[in-house]
Amino acid sequence: MMKNLKWGLIGASRIGAEWIIPAIRSTPGNEIVAVQGGDALRVSDYARNHSIANAFTSVEELLAADLDAVYISNTNEKHAPCAIAALNAGKHVLGEKPMATSLDEAKAMVALAHEKGLTLAINHHLRGMNSHRKLRDLVESGALGELVAVRAMFGVLLPQANRGWRTESAVAGAGVFFDLTVHDADSLHFILGEKFKRVATFTSNNGVSAEGIEDGVAIVAQTASGLTVQITESFAVEHAKTSLELHGTTASVFAEGVLLQSPGGKLELSIQGERQEIKIEHENAYPRVIAAFATAAQGKGRPLVSGEDGLASLQFAIAARQAAETHQVVEI
Ligand code: NDP
What we know:
By secondary structure, the protein is of the alpha/beta class. The protein folds into two domains: 5-124 and 286-305, 3-Layer(aba) Sandwich (Rossmann fold); 126-282 and 315-331, Dihydrodipicolinate Reductase, domain 2 (2-Layer Sandwich), CATH 3.30.360.10. 36% of the residues lie in helices and 25% in strands. It contains ten helices and 15 strands. It has helices spanning 14-25, 40-49, 59-63, 76-88, 103-116, 130-140, 165-168, 176-192, 286-297, 307-326; strands at 5-10, 30-36, 54-56, 69-72, 92-95, 120-122, 147-155, 196-204, 216-223, 228-234, 243-248, 252-256, 266-271, 274-278, 330-331. It has a nine-stranded mixed β-sheet. Strands 3-2-1-4-5-6 form a six-stranded parallel β-sheet, with helices on both faces. Strand 2 (30-36), helix 2 (40-49) and strand 3 (54-56) form a beta-alpha-beta unit. The longest helix is centred in the last third of the chain and has 20 residues, at 307-326. It is globular and about 60 Å long. The protein starts with a strand and ends with a strand. 49% of the residues are buried. Bound molecules: NADPH dihydro-nicotinamide-adenine-dinucleotide phosphate (NDP).
């Protein structure tokens, strides 16, 4: 019999309210006992609105409470310091993406989790989508033959409510690389079963992000086996659905609307240009993130996305950014 996992939330965020609080509460054996937010009034409102018993303004106070695990979803630059403080306080950590805004911090998080024997996981929830699992199965089983080309398009019109720090604050890790590139890197690492080795990038600003911060990214990358992948990411695409295309020697697969928070989208297998829909039973991915994390924290499995996985996706995003800044191909 597993003991209940008591969670504290670091960051009184929208993702917490919309997805993670319900996911924790719908997973047997998990409960939320506290939340931390920087502003006293806002965090106490958040706690009341979400029926959380304790609200704190400092991370130290929250970590002193009777907790087993924390979920970190404040602005990007705070993820690593909060994770390091939580691991040092003996708590398991589920961190939001990007896991950190520097590789040194991310590596320190992974090393500390190992040293303390604690679970560190990153919320790249897309691995938990049945659409992504199907794509991975198609690659792994050889149903597509040998892959010859891959494209990903994570373009959205960023809702006004999601702008602010995400589009304006360089300090908070604003821009596409830390918001979308990390997700695409993790999805593609998962689906392709291998990691990227080199990357070239161009960026653009189409008026959604503040001056000097990208809101569009075009990436060409190559995996360890030499597969070439094109990735388009944008906060300024209003009239399209997100998509993934995997093209193999036996078949292609077109996946549309599969890169969002909500489960859904459509997969079509194409042979000689004839498309046939692959039926997917869509499921909310966030409870899967929580269930796998809780099992790992009890010493019985691995999280959906480990600290090492998060580090690999961050490494790719930082290399892609460096490629754009230097106009060079960057080896990873
Ligand atoms: P929010 O903007 O809702 O919250 C982030 C922080 O901003 C909060 O922790 C809070 O700081 C501060 N904040 C929020 N609203 C207000 C307000 N009205 N007034 C003052 N401060 C406010 O962020 P998101 O939920 O969009 O994203 C949080 C993290 O989660 C990000 O790192 C993002 O990358 C990640 N994310 C991940 C997703 C996924 O599917 N894996 C999806 C969406 C986001 P404080 O805590 O100090 O009060």
